[in-house]
Amino acid sequence: MYSYDQYDQAMVDARVAEFRDQAQRRIDGKLSEDQFKPLRLMNGLYLQLHAYMLRVAIPYGTLNGRQMHALADIADKYDRGYGHFTTRQNIQYNWIKLEDAGDILADLAAVEMHAIQTSGNCIRNISSDHFAGAAQDELVDPRPYAELLRQWSSFHPEFMYLPRKFKIAVIASDTDRAAMRLHDIGIQIVKNEAGELGASFYVGGGMGRTPMIAPNIRSFVPLDQLITYSEACLRVYNRYGRRDNKYKARIKILVHELGAEEYTRQVEEEFAHLLQQGIEPPIAELERIRTFFEDPAFEDGPKTIDRSDPDFALWVDRNTHRHKHDSYVSAVVSLKPVGGIPGDATAEQMHLMAELAEQYSFDELRVMHTQNVVLPHVKIADLHALWTKLDAAGLGTPNLDQIGDIIACPGLDYCSLANARSIPLSQKISERFAANGKQDILGELKLKISGCINACGHHHAGHIGILGVDKKGVENYQLSLGGSEAEDTALGKITGRGFDEAGVIDAVETVTDVYLAQKQGEERFLDTYNRIGMAPFKEALYD
Amino acid sequence: MTNLIRLRDDAPVNDPVADFEACCDQSNATAVRIEPGDDARALLPFLDRLNLVEVNFPAFGDGRGYSAARILREAGFTGEIRAVGDVLVDQVNNMKRCGFDAFAPDAPLDADDLETALNRWPEDYQAAADASTPIWNKRHE
After folding, report:
1. What is the pLDDT of residues A394-441, one digit of tens each?
2. How many CB atoms lie within 10 A of CB A7?
3. Which fold does the domain A142-290 belong to in CATH?
């Protein structure tokens, strides 16, 4: 994986010094709270309901054991002994003191980490495929391109005060594991007819209160123009994105209002101009970055799994993913125990994951946007030993992409924007479906919960989505069906009037019963919904 | 202009400053002020006669002026580009990188803080309107 040279380290160290200076000027009264706010946000510091929250960047979700150990130490030293992995492949700490923030950033910098641009109206952490470099179906590893974009977007002088936040995802396979088309810019690395690699650009997707699926605006950007084209996309947005209404300020609204064709025309014009400016990095830099992502020394070994232990066999079926080397798999560590808080891990669990990565996965871990953790390169021969240790630590729940693998935002338990609680609802749903045994027969079913319209819990993209709203001071939940964040990207449709907390749990069970009664063959919930439509579900819910 | 800070050696431009529309209509204006919504490219036909472009920041969080300055520099403008309005010390280095070489903030900037801010960064990752060599070029020199 990527490691810093003296330049990267110097930049991160300078950022720590800058933040300490800014925090001191805030304390001295030289900066007003309004002036300080965007500065602290661009260092990942939010003010939540009860305390400051610090969001640490995990670029394209990749980290090593030493870094995971450091994250655990931060949880112990500065927080309450746990952290929360997020849908942007980052980690958040919920109980931070402002006066500790500079020291935490320094601790992070010591292990080549930071919280730069994890909030604010700027280019955020670049996300990617959590199986990058391991998946059997990828064209190339997408992370070198994500790393180049990380460098380009870090402290970009022109794009620190965009109309709104800006999220970029990079993938390199036709299977989309990163919700690529629901990003401000989604990039798929592709090959053209001449066999050359390039970038296909999708611009203007997003969730939030106006969900949109990004249109493709250019099917092939040569790799030696990748940064210039990205710069053109951003400049058109910075100049013309709406600033009169923060709810209409994301690039999806600009692309929608101009039309994809007109937005594309403006980008192409800016691109032609910028090509004359010589802003593209030398292609040798991409080559340098690629060397960090070369395959580890895979060894041939056993290719079959002893399935005599049924609990282990179930976990293998659910939580492992095919690897490009047939003696290895990628193993998913579930952070969704029955009744747990989705994405939370204790410091002890983080230390254990770090040790297991060092021992079994070439010292590499990935954070998934579904709030789980991956050990990308595990020898099939080591799998049972790994599972045994995970299971003993409460990290072996066999529920990847099952109904218990819920994405949930922090909701009203932490977030000052939320209208409703997400965490207790997700806990009760996972308990219900564990108790009634249905989680084992429902198959792939992605359930996602957001506590407000900002959609941090990706409810629009859930096979079943739940949105918490405030209805005359009472928490109310809207149900939607049929969303997908995968290569068949789709936005869910609302079933009808909302429910109270107990009611929406019953409603989820009702729609899963419709699925079980109607499913044909190997259909997943989403397939059945797409075949029979909303009507049978509505009927069961409301008639 | 008591708060004027200049990063260039020539004498400050004190020409009367026309607003954007007047400048585009009037053939003899030598200084102009543009607002966040104005298209900096509309000034390109007049760059030869302009000595000063003031870019107004009514609120520091509106970043359109950064693109305006870079566009002017990319077109070869060598006159003064002055950031005016809600210009704060934590934004001046990025402004400088985008081509601003003068600042007329509504509230005066602390001289020490300004010095620190302009010398904070050892390197730059990406190219902009200044002469800085990006890290990715230095790595392959």
Report:
1. 999 999 999 999 999 989 888 888 999 999 999 999 999 999 999 999
2. 18
3. Sulfite Reductase Hemoprotein; domain 1 (3.30.413)
What interface predicted TM-score (ipTM) does this complex get? 0.97
Residue partners of A472: CB distance under 8 A and separation at least 6: none
Candidate from A64-68, A88-92, A362-366, A490-494 with smallest mean pLDDT: A88-92
For strands A493-494 and A474-481, give the pairing. antiparallel
Cβ pair B125:A21 closer than 8 A: no
* Predicted pLDDT of residue B1: 53
Do the chains contact at A7 and B135, CB–CB below 8 Å?
yes
| Cα angle B40, A205, A173; round to 5 | 115
A156/B126 CB distance under 8 A: yes
Q: From the CA of B2, how many Å to the nearest CA of chain A?
A: 20
Mean of per-residue pLDDT scores for chain B: 95
Q: Which residue of A has its CA nearest to B121?
A: A14
User: In 10 A of CB A506, how many CB atoms?
Assistant: 12
**The CATH number, out of the four listed (3.30.413.10, 3.20.20.370, 3.50.30.40, 2.70.50.80), of the domain defined by the range A407-542:** 3.30.413.10
Q: What is the pLDDT of residues B89-130, one digit of tens each?
A: 999 999 999 999 999 999 999 999 999 999 999 999 999 999
Residue count of chain A, please give it: 543
Domain limits of chain A? 6-109, 142-290, 407-542
State whether A30 and B110 contact (CB < 8 Å). Answer: yes
Taking the CA of residue B22 and the nearest CA in chain A, the distance in Å comes to 22
Q: Do B125 and A158 touch (CB under 8 A)?
A: no
Entry field: residues in chain B: 141
In chain A, residues with a C-beta closer than 8 Å to the C-beta of B116 are 21
Q: Which residues of A touch B73 (CB under 8 A)?
A: none
